[in-house]
Amino acid sequence: MTGPVSDSLTAALNRRSLLVPPMAAVLLALVWGQSLPAAVAGLAGLALIGAVLAAVHHAEVVAHRVGEPIGSLLLAVAVTVIEVGLIVTLMADYGSKNATLARDTVFAAIMITCNGIVGLCLLVGSLRTQVAVFNPEGTGAALASIATLATLSLALPSFTTSTPGPQFSPTQLVFASLAALVLYGLFVATQTVRHREYFLPPQIVHAPADPDRPGQDEHAEPPTRRATWTSAALLLVALVAVVGLAKAVSPTIESGLTRAGLPASVMGVVIALLVLLPETIAATRAARRDQVQIGLNLALGSAMASIGLTIPAVAFATLWLSGPLVLGLDPTHLVLLALTVAVGTLTVIPGRATPLQGGVHLSVLAAYVVLAVSP
Fold first, then answer.
1. CA distances (Å), origin 322, targets 15, 90, 98, 197
2. SS3 per residue for the chain
3. Residues with Cβ < 8 Å from 14, sequence gap 6 or more?
4. Domain spans, the chain
5. How far apart are CA 274 and CA 372, in angstroms?
6. pLDDT tens series, the chain, 375 aa
7. pTM
8. Which residues sit opposite 352 in a β-bridge?
9. d(Cα 117, Cα 283) in Å, to the nearest integer?
10. Rounded-to-integer distance, Cα 368 and Cα 108, Å
């Protein structure tokens, strides 16, 4: 692509990102609290997708200003705020009918990030350079944290006996929430303060001053302070629009799933796919630039944020939400979680991956999607 064409395309994308959040917010104000006909629901869905993409664009602008790995962290947190907002608002609307929504969405996020986005990054990166290279120290620490949080929050409730069913007792739920917050805080401190180099692409770590080396940051100059604050404000508007519009179109989505004869748990998969689509795009772009580590940061950081922030938020929301909170996974999903952790560990240890590892992770995701649609 030539320079002028590329510049014009970038300018068009920037203009769209500036216009979409306020337009989505206006549409939200018009449809709030109303029963939407199919045509309006479709328009709201398009605006929702546009707001998600705009939110990620503005998160990337802010991230570019602050640099890596903090940039990946900010993008992951922004996406998780969307996820938490959707879960809490939908649980508030439907109560006990969505008792498993938090579990289904968090587990779907784990499967999509740890298998889908990771597999895609490894596949794209290794096809481009034959072998995808990343830092096993940082990636391994992230995977270990995810495995621990997933086990404490989603696996243990299936085996506890204080409360009937796959649920935590209030004491156990408080413990799981505090453990999630503490581990996530430690992970953030490790990623951004004490061991930042573990989460940078190996090419940048070994040659930080050579802009001609592959794997270096290929972005333009960092945005100005004014552009950064503008993007931060529009990011907030976009996040509010996403949560509100998703709540507005959720009855249409749910009725569509019911008519199609799909299980209720598919709603969690839809939410996770929606909020993680921008992460997938950003991670794939990084892998194409031979920065697989940044793609892995996005994927595993999103999984960490999804568990570390969603579980405490939903636990706090149960103080005023009616109905039970079911967090325990069923046996099929427990097997898939164990397989994900085992495959992820074997992938991370060498710090190098071929297309085979990418294909293995994507096959686990495919199995999850098939079993979600046809349990």
1. 43, 12, 10, 45
2. CCHHHHHHHHHHHHHHHHHHHHHHHHHHHHHCCCCCCHHHHHHHHHHHHHHHHHHHHHHHHHHHHHCCCHHHHHHHHHHHHHHHHHHHHHHHHHHHHHCCHHHHHHHHHHHHHHHHHHHHHHHHHHHHHCCEECCHHHHHHHHHHHHHHHHHHHHHHHCCCCCCCCCCCHHHHHHHHHHHHHHHHHHHHHHHHHCHHHHCCHHHHHCCCCCCCCCCCCCCCCCCHHHHHHHHHHHHHHHHHHHHHHHHHHHHHHHHHHHCCCCCCHHHHHHHHHHHHHHHHHHHHHHHCCCHHHHHHHHHHHHHHHHHHHHHHHHHHCCCCCCCCCCCCCHHHHHHHHHHHHHHHHHHCCCEECHHHHHHHHHHHHHHHHHHHCC
3. 57
4. 3-373
5. 16
6. 444 444 444 555 567 778 888 888 888 888 887 777 878 888 888 888 888 788 777 877 877 776 656 666 776 677 677 777 777 776 766 555 667 888 888 899 899 999 999 999 999 999 888 899 899 998 999 999 999 999 999 999 999 888 887 889 989 999 999 999 899 889 888 888 777 788 887 766 555 444 444 444 444 577 788 888 888 888 888 888 887 887 788 777 777 777 877 887 787 788 788 778 777 888 888 888 888 988 898 889 888 888 888 888 888 888 777 777 889 999 999 999 999 999 999 999 999 999 999 999 999 999 999 998 888
7. 0.81
8. 133
9. 7
10. 9
Q: Which residue has the tokens 């099929």?
A: 332
User: What top-level class would CATH report for the domain 3-373?
Assistant: mainly alpha
* C-alpha–C-alpha distance, residues 189 and 180, integer Å: 14
